[in-house]
Amino acid sequence: MRTPLTLFALFLLIAAVALSLTVGDSSEGAAESGLIWKSFDEGSTLAVQEKKKMLVDIYTDWCGWCKKMDKEVYPDAKVKNVLQSKFVVVKLNAESEDKIRYQGSSMSQREFARAVGVTGYPATLFFDENLKAITLLPGYVKADEFSQILAYIADNHYKNKSYQDYLNSLSSLK
């Protein structure tokens, strides 16, 4: 017969094992993508200099879906091709107190994530070539859909048609 203390210890062990499966550094998976991830400050300077859009991957170290994006979405050939040619890619840890500069202000990465409306992870924030925010995409997105979103933004379709109209125009080409 198991005592409440034994059951509690078993519960703690199971919880610790489950937590260890999701905790880790998101940069481990990011390295697998083959992309060259920049810090926010470095990326924003580079985006303006190279006249490229900027993608900011907002993550936390404990986020399992963030790791899934790093391992399955960013390494995808279509995704990687668009990112390498049209975007500067940035990683931002939404729990970090490290400071960044944005629009003349200094704030922590945590404060920035809150300021742009991030409420869950992962979140993907897109900026134009002048560092004006385009949109915030919440959650995990599969590679096929993510590559379509990247093309929609990279080729400036967002300026004159809704995403649904863009998708409809793609299906009419088939």
Helix and strand topology:
Elements: H1 4-22, H2 26-32, H3 40-50, E1 53-59, H4 64-73, H5 77-86, E2 87-93, E3 99-102, E4 105-108, H6 109-115, E5 123-127, E6 133-138, H7 143-154, H8 163-173
Parallel strand pairs: 1-2
Antiparallel strand pairs: 1-5, 3-4, 5-6
Taking strands numbered 1, 2, ... along the chain, how are they ordered across the largest sheet? 2-1-5-6
The CATH class is identified as Alpha Beta
What's the gyration radius in Å? 19 Å
Give the biggest sheet: 4 strands, mixed
H/E series: HHHEHHEEEHEEHH
Gap between N and C termini, in Å?
A: 65 Å
Low-confidence stretches: 2-29
CATH topology: Glutaredoxin
The domain count comes to 1
The helical percent reads 40-55%
Averaged pLDDT: 85
Explain what this protein looks like in three dimensions.
The protein is of the alpha+beta class. It has a single domain, classed as Glutaredoxin, CATH 3.40.30.10. The chain is 50% helix and 19% strand. The strands form 2 sheets. Strands 2-1-5-6 form a 4-stranded mixed beta sheet. Strands 3-4 form a two-stranded antiparallel sheet. The model is unreliable at 2-29 (pLDDT under 50).
